[in-house]
Design a protein that fits this description.
Distance between the termini: 113 Å
Oligomer: single chain
Structural class: mainly alpha
Radius of gyration: 30 Å
Strand content: under 5%
Number of strands: 0
Helix content: 55-70%
Amino acid sequence: MGLLDRWRRRPAEGAAAPEAPRRRRRREPAPAAVPGEAALREVLQEDPNDEAAFAALVETVRTRAAEAHVADHPAEGHEAEDARRAADNAVWALAEELAQSPRAWRPLLVLGRLSLADDREAALRRLGIAAERDPSGTALAQALGTLREAGMNDEALGLGVGHWRPREHDVEAGRHLVAAAIDSGRLAEARRHLKALGEHPDQGRVAPLRAELEDAIARADRARR
């Protein structure tokens, strides 16, 4: 190569040197996409009691309803309370829609909880239907828990006695029933339900509950002497 050729091939003064090839970065796996509302509704059409899909859809409609209310009423007072009410109304409409399925019990639990303060009779009816629709006893356990949280132990006892199947239902249903009897001061009834709970085939779960409930009965008995 001649001198002229070498001069022509020399990089111009001040020009940047060619970059070294960049190392290709390893692609990180994309985060799992949160299912959209349409996808969640499709899941719930197949199984209206799908816990994860129901919770996600409830959160979606609550958030949207609350945001829409704030956007439509930016200058009104009591924004938080009004937004919460709008969100509850949206959840009510969703639960009412899904409860039309004869297999649905989770939406009925929501309707029962939302109507407990304003229409106790209707709430109890919805909780009872939910318990009837779920052979596992999960709905019954959650319905009893809802009533106990509301201080309605007598109503919990009425619902539990009418629907509880000790050998078939989840042990949580039996635990709530015994606890409701204790909280109502019906210790003899609590002991009867605790004895019935012993019929459940999963004694691995029953044993610690039995010890816990026996202790609770003994403490309640001592407290009223």
